[in-house]
Specification:
Order of helices and strands: HEEHHEEEEEHEEHHHEEHHEEH
Oligomer: single chain
Number of strands: 13
Radius of gyration: 21 Å
CATH topology of the largest domain: Hsp33 domain
Structural class: alpha+beta
Strand order of the largest sheet: 7-6-3-4-5-11
Helix content: 25-40%
Length: about 300
């Protein structure tokens, strides 16, 4: 069977906007979520000042967190935390239901690049009851973000899932970023399962400059069509994605207000306190007068 891309290789597609598409096959066997996160990754990596291997891994973690949120908690925030085996590296992805996402890269002890292999992945999301669900999985040696997230979906969510995320960096910029998640639903039969299993073998890896993600410019519609080629399906939703930080002057002041009066009195002696957001790099200046206001009895 020849896929659309094999029959008619797509021309260079102009960059669109970051979005996430949701669909279900008409036989009720599979649910599919596809995301383009190119612009989101570009902004996140620029804020963290990294377009190296660590930046690629951070981009993949952001995309994977978006896919988990869209599938398991579309109306709630989902956070993912990756720790390296030696605990010198940490990546954080933060996905919100309004489509805003951000990422954080932290390295210490002379670590240059973050390798997820033998590390741990922790995913936190809010349940419909308001309780916090926390799942932690080990990342196998030589493992990837895609493998770690599939392990999380199987062990913590008990959902059979095929997932792949990727980021292609070219010349110090994100050329393409995105991914997909295919879930097996209870209605799946042996026939559709066999077809999809065979089909997804071509999509286990979507990265690299010659991979399908780059060839399709990470556009979600053609990737969805490729994944479900020959299977009638119904689109279920189309939502925008973007890089969005949650920092603000109010949040900075709230953080300072949590300090003890002794600590605040020490800070008042400084001419101006400069603070910056770890996620986006935005700077905030706090004056002694603002700090003194926190010490007022009122």
């Amino acid at each position: 069977m020849t896929s659309p891309s094999e029959a008619n290789p797509p021309a260079q597609t102009p960059q669109g906007t970051d979005r996430v598409l949701r669909a279900m096959t008409d036989d009720g066997a599979f649910r599919v979520v596809v995301a383009r996160t190119t612009d989101t990754a570009q902004a996140a990596l620029a804020a963290q000042n990294t377009f190296s291997i660590s930046g690629m891994v951070l981009s993949e973690l952001i995309t994977g967190t978006v896919l988990v949120r869209e599938t398991m908690a579309p109306t709630h925030r989902v956070q993912s935390l990756l720790r390296t085996a030696d605990h010198r590296g940490r990546l954080v992805a933060d996905a919100h239901p309004d489509g805003g996402n951000r990422g954080l890269l932290s390295r210490s002890g002379g670590l240059t690049e973050i390798d997820p292999g033998d590390g741990s992945l922790e995913v936190l999301r809010t349940l419909h009851t308001g309780e916090l669900h926390r799942g932690v999985v080990h990342v196998p040696a030589q493992g990837s973000i895609s493998q770690a997230l599939m392990s999380y979906m199987a062990s913590s969510e008990q959902v059979a899932t095929m997932l792949a995320v990727a980021c292609v960096i070219d010349g110090g910029r994100v050329a393409a970023a995105g991914g997909y998640m295919v879930q097996l639903l209870p209605e799946v039969g042996r026939g559709p399962l066999a077809i999809m299993t065979e089909r997804l073998r071509d999509f286990e890896r979507i990265d690299g400059p010659d991979g399908i993600l780059a060839k399709l410019a990470a556009e979600p519609e053609p990737l969805l069509e490729e994944l479900l080629y020959g299977m009638p399906y119904t689109p279920l939703g189309d939502s925008p994605l973007s890089f969005q930080c949650r920092c603000s002057a109010v949040r900075v002041m709230s953080a300072l207000a949590s300090l003890s009066k002794t600590d605040i009195n020490e800070l008042v002696r400084e001419p101006i306190i400069e603070m910056s957001c770890d996620y986006c790099g935005k700077s905030y200046a706090v004056t002694p007068e603002q700090l003194k206001g926190m010490l007022d009895p009122s």
